[in-house]
Amino acid sequence: MTIDPRPPRAVRTLRGLLVATAAATAGVELLNFLYAPEHGFGLVVRTGWALLRTLGWLILIWHVGRGRAAARPLGLILAVTTVFAVGRLVVPRTGAPPLAGVLGFLALTALCVTVVVLLYRHRGIGEHLVRHPRKLEFTRAGVEWRESAPKRPPAAAWAVTARVAAFTYSPLLLVPALISVSELGSRPQWLLAVVFWFGAGIGVSYAVMLSTFFLLRGKHWAPRLLVWITVGVLAVDLPLCYLLLGLDGLIRDGAPLVAAAVLVGYSVWRVARLPALVTTATRG
Questions:
Q1: Which pairs from 223-229 meet CB under 8 Å and 24+ separation?
Q2: At CA 83, angle to CA 79 and CA 85, rounded to 5?
């Protein structure tokens, strides 16, 4: 497949929007940090994690520039989690949020919505995002490093979206677990719960890796496994957020996880309705 080395105008526009979104993400987070009435450990951790999301936008720019098919699900989960991650920093513990922070958040939300619409609705961008990663392949001419489409049946876009969204479970568990360490000074009886929280955050990454590996290969039981993993993640994280970080922590740290879980659930539901999945599962 031959692709024009000069990307279409819509793709160049999208890349410009992604640069603006990455800059707005960092700018709004720093603005909220400066306007915050207190700079506790929790705010520092949440701001630091939100700033790391800027790297995700840079990776997305790289994928779009190279026409990678993975850009769509990556852009969707980045947009959703960025809105929630930044939104939880806008509202302080007490009092009204600063006007500058609210305006910045609204502008960032508009950018994220625009990015998602372009990724999923613009025909020219959809025709550009078709490339696969390069791999070493053995051919008659020898060993070549070239673009290689998967040998398995093409994975549905919603299956890839579910995979990308589920991989956010681990950091979304670890961030509140790290914040809760500051509570152990006055509540040492929760030490084992915090250790378990960290263990769950690390272990879920392996569980997601396993379940999504088979999900992309059309195994009929993989969607159910991913749903059960999602239920388990929510059952661990939400009660611990409330018990150790209070209602404020439940809203700030639980809401992004719930958003990711809803996206995973919807994606899995869409995948389960695909005839290709049923056919592949029957063969498997």
A1: 223/268, 223/271, 223/272, 226/162, 226/166, 226/264, 226/268, 227/264, 227/265, 227/268, 229/166, 229/169, 229/204
A2: 115
Contact of 278 with 220, CB cutoff 8 Å: yes
The pLDDT tens digits for 160-216 are 888 888 998 998 999 889 888 887 877 888 899 999 999 999 999 999 999 998 888
71-90 vs 157-166: helix axis angle to the nearest 10? 40
pLDDT value at 151 more than 80 = no
- pTM for this entry: 0.74
The answer to whether the beta carbons of residues 179 and 253 sit under 8 Å apart is: yes
3-state secondary structure of 145: strand
Residue 159 contacts residue 271 (beta carbons within 8 Å): yes
State how far Cα 95 lies from the chain centre: 30
Banded model confidence at residue 234, pLDDT cuts 50, 70, 90: very high
Rounded to a whole number of angstroms, the CA Rg of the chain reads: 21
Residues 6+ apart with CB under 8 A from 140: none
Q: Are 169 and 208 in contact (CB under 8 A)?
A: yes
* Domain boundaries defined on the chain: 1-149, 151-284
DSSP 133: -
**Across 74-92, average pLDDT:** 79
